[in-house]
């Protein structure tokens, strides 16, 4: 990789080589007990160059030869965006607990045994529910080398375990997924929770159109927390298109809301020692007791804003993570800190309202302004403190900069979701549209 860097520097002003060496082993147990397991080894390379003040990027494999990677990056630089930053020099960083030797040592046979154990436990308790069990084991080495003298790498593992169920004659279902950077035993209580929620949705219920209390399960909270991520994005700050542009130090939510970007979590799903541009990561408050604290910056937005990178230049997009995604300002583990309510007490407290387990169309509405307008993919109708059945043909709409003042309570524990970790959220008043 040093040879690639040196060759690129013969034709450009600055260069960075980003390499991911990954081994993955996705495994699925289908409802009929058939097991499918794959093993994949992959080396991916991304080259970023700065030439005449413009950035060019190419992604490929070294098997295609260095010349193609370099020429593709130089061609991209001809039409690239102007940049006013340099690739970073080496900066001390703290190691994270993100590597698990037990996970690394697991063979396909031992992995299959784990999957069949989860499958058997689920089927023993609920043989009538159609399920797939999905496991994935990832082992990665990530290395960054640049023309400013930076050359550093880290090893990371990741383990994902999920039970995916399906309603009768439907593509929807109740899913339970956990992701960590170490191996864990799939909790029996999550299996029981899946079964309980599945049974709760067997009876269809029409929901009236009006404002009412709403509970978001942790599996659904990411859809509204995503708006916080967009609002605190450094690129949007530079463009002055976020409503939070001049809100540092001001109250934007209820004092119940504290949101943290936390890459320091031991074995956290997205914990990393430094970002995908080589800048060390650190724990930082985005919102603390309702007060807006920080924007998140990558090298580009940090330079344009004059605030510098916050260690949040990550190769993450709306739907996935990958070497082909340009580094942009993103949180690592986005953590909504817990409150003091039990989930069961939230349900009991509601005279009439809904419970949201999953949503469809989370990106609908003007996310920059905090708006949302989403279908309730999987949810329940609550009446007199009891779940009556599945909420059908139901939508919710609102704005986080208004609704986050109406948070009646947060669950007293956090769980994994697509962005990081959060508790269940209980809102006293959200606009709901139904056919009841």
The CATH fourth-level homologous superfamily of the largest domain: PmbA/TldD superfamily
Instruction: Describe the global form.
Output: globular
Which CATH-level-2 architecture of the largest domain? 2-Layer Sandwich
Largest sheet: 7 strands, antiparallel
Using only CA atoms, what is the Rg?
23 Å
Helix content percent band: 10-25%
Mean of all residue-level pLDDT scores: 96
User: Which percent range describes the beta-strand content?
Assistant: 35-45%
CATH class of the largest domain: Alpha Beta
Q: Look at the helices and sheets and give the structural class.
A: alpha+beta
CATH domain fold name of the largest domain = PmbA/TldD fold
Number of strands: 23
Write the layout of secondary structure elements.
Blueprint: H1 2-9, E1 14-29, E2 35-37, E3 40-51, E4 54-60, H2 66-78, H3 101-105, H4 108-125, E5 130-146, E6 151-166, E7 175-180, H5 188-200, E8 204-206, E9 210-216, H6 218-231, H7 234-239, E10 259-261, E11 284-288, E12 291-292, H8 299-305, E13 313-314, E14 328-329, E15 334-336, H9 343-349, E16 352-360, E17 371-383, E18 386-392, E19 395-399, H10 400-403, E20 407-410, E21 415-416, E22 420-422, E23 425-433
